[in-house]
Known about the structure:
The structure holds three protein chains of three kinds.
Chain A: H1 9-31, H2 40-68, H3 82-90, H4 101-104, H5 111-132, H6 138-166, H7 170-187, H8 197-202, H9 210-228, H10 251-260
Helix pairs in contact in A: 1-2, 2-3, 2-6, 5-6, 5-7, 5-9, 6-9
Chain B: H1 20-32, H2 44-69, H3 78-103, H4 109-117, H5 134-155, H6 161-189, H7 193-212, H8 226-229, H9 237-255, E1 260-264, E2 270-275, H10 295-305, H11 309-330
Antiparallel strand pairs in B: 1-2
Chain C: H1 5-9, E1 28-35, E2 42-50, H2 53-61, E3 72-77, E4 82-83, E5 98-105, E6 113-120, H3 123-133, E7 142-147, E8 152-153, H4 172-185, H5 188-195
Antiparallel strand pairs in C: 1-2, 1-3, 3-8, 4-7, 5-6, 5-7
The structure holds fe (ii) ion (2 copies).
Amino acid sequence: MQTIPADLRDDFVRLLLSVADDKLLLGHRNSDWTGLAPILEEDIAFSALAQDEIAHAQALYGLAASVSHPDARAGADASGDAPAADALAFGRPAAAYLCAAFVEADDGFDWAVALVRRFLCDAFDAARLQRLSGSGFAPLAHLAARLLREERSHLEHASGWLVRLGRGTTESAARMQAALDRLAPAAMTLFEPFDGEDRVASAGLYPGDRATMFRTWRAAVEPVLARAGLTAAFTLDPDPPRGGRRGVHSPAFSAQLDEMCEVFRLAPEAAW
Amino acid sequence: MSGSANEGVVVDPMIREEDPQRLAEFEAKMARGDLIEADDWMPKAYRDAMLRMAEHHANSEIVGALPEGEWITRAPSLRRKLALTAKVQDEVGHGQMLYRVSQDLGKSRDDMLRDLITGKTKYHNCFNYPVPTWADIAMIQWLIDGAAIMNQKTLADGAYGPYVRTMKRINMEEAFHFRSGEDMVLTLMSGTPLQRGMCQEAFDRWWGPALMFFGPPDKPGAEHLPPMRWRMKTVKNDELRRRFVNRFAPAAIDLGLRIHVVEKDGHGSVIAKRPDERAVRDAATGDWGYTEPDWNEFFRVIRGHGPCNAERLALRRFSYEQGHWVQQAVLGRRAGLPPAA
Amino acid sequence: MTMSRIRDHFPRTDPAAPLASAPMGDLDPYVVFTQLRANGPFLYAGWLEAPDAEMALLLARDHYGRDQVCTAVRVIHRADLESSDGLYTLAMPPPDGTEWLVATQKRPGDIFIEMGRVRAAGPAAAMDAARASVPGAATAHVIWVIPADRAVTTAPDDLIWRTTDQTYRLARGYRRDVREKWTRFRDESALAEYERDDLTEEF
Ligand SMILES: [Fe+2]
Ligand SMILES: [Fe+2]
């Protein structure tokens, strides 16, 4: 499929935005560690991964822009049209963002929290990109397959640290377990469906379903946790409350958005 | 952005205690332009001074990541957000590589980081100034990274092999910092009145620190003193400053920026300014003039009383203390592994 | 003006108080080589510190592997390096007949480049074998030999250079735009004068 049927367009754009918004917010929070993360080498690498997330978001916003305005530009390659991608990244009201609550939260400047969140998100993103790489919309399938390779290397990185710190000192094990205890319930918000998810799924644009993706995610996460000596219980809420995926965000999210868009909003039409 | 290592260069007179034969060979190598490697014989004074210089430079990279890091969360476009993150990340990488050079001269990285955050060692002065707007990011990357490149190009002609190699690789990354800075300044000066105004104000804040970047005026006979004789430094401070002004003053004026002599308060905010009447080209020499920056302010900031010294050290200290458990958890892992077959 | 939330809210300690943590040692040093094109030589890139070789490789990929397009990354623990100038000595000699990687520094100040492999019993013999059979080794300023099975290298299908647009972190990603914008403000001769101070080598 090379074009999206008009009656599915809004649902499909929501799919793209939910992925891009997750990546933007995770990249946003993690990039703030640049210059401050533990061990200079890890500081550099952690920042590289944050850049990947933002670059992925940029590509997905580009695709979303070209799908919402199919006449604006021929083709749907994701690298072009920076202003349209920026307008999506910085120019929407809070309720139009479809990221999960999990990526919005402050990490409290606790690197164990930042790392465990990254690990759980990388595993989720890998599962989601795997699903997207089978999309009937070819430009998305190709992009997802490309990003999936990067996502897997992120997961390798996060897993490497998880295992070493989970099995490091008593202190590091306790810090990692505490971070996991704090994050495990909130991680389930990643699986909240966006409006129209079932429709794009059954149209083959987002093949598969939540329950299968949850199993795939657990199968990726649990062996690493076991190797790290960490424990967590995950349960998928069959009917989760309306949250980030459906535009319902915490007040803290608006404040975060105000910060992220502070300069952009000074002159939204201008080049910066 | 990077540190000028100039302030780190101090050589004490202990060279008199060295074996005269070896010292003479060393001086001859220096005069020939040979490179020194980490295991070559060198006077203790040279080793100590080289360590101080590389450590000071490394410290400057690590602290230099902080002022710009403040704006990563607020960069106004995805490309700028990516670029600023990558730029700050590069500076951390420079610090990492320069700490390695220092470690091979005999001090552990952990000790260097601890000495930095407890104020035992110093970093470059210009990172003690505030970065109140996005335009300051543009100005830092244009003027301060621009100054750093001019300085580091000459440091790459130095004599200490490991430092020279590191400087060459660092300079290859600095090219991106400078281009990105130019691009931001050009974009702002092509933009709305608000953007141009932001840019002028940022220029007023950074022109002085950029002039100070190369260090205070040279002592008479600097070329015969060890730092230059031993090619730890290859060009004098005032000469670097002259080249910098000749490059940047006319460029700023052509961009529509006005060069001011400014007065700042204790927080680094500009409270008064007047046009710098010396900022004109001397027809006879071809050199651009400038008003000397406030060297009293320079020495005040070095002594720890700049607008942001406390803030920078507090954040660096927090970073070290909060991350301590991570390094602690993975220390000595390899030593604990069974020997390879 | 508000600072980024994290940087605004980090907990502060009394700057006069001694550090809460005790000094600790450094992690182990690894030297990093990068290969810029498939089947090309491995070039010295720099050093880093890591808990172990596996982490060293992951960290090297995300630092030295991202400076320029790069097809493979290799890390070697400093204790696995024997240097002809005595700077590094091999900590644990491998069994006789091991294969050794040979890297040479042609002139002082040059970077090390991996030039070949030899089989030999012990580092001294490997050094001799290198001088006899590896191109350029006989006249090189310094030779490094490394037991080949101690070097840790990325797999052929490992992704190092990213697939997304990376021009944001490269000087060439800005050059054309910057030049075009300058011409709106400055004439060619002023610009040429200004550009004389540009760096000539860049990523
Ligand atoms: Fe820089
Ligand atoms: Fe730098």
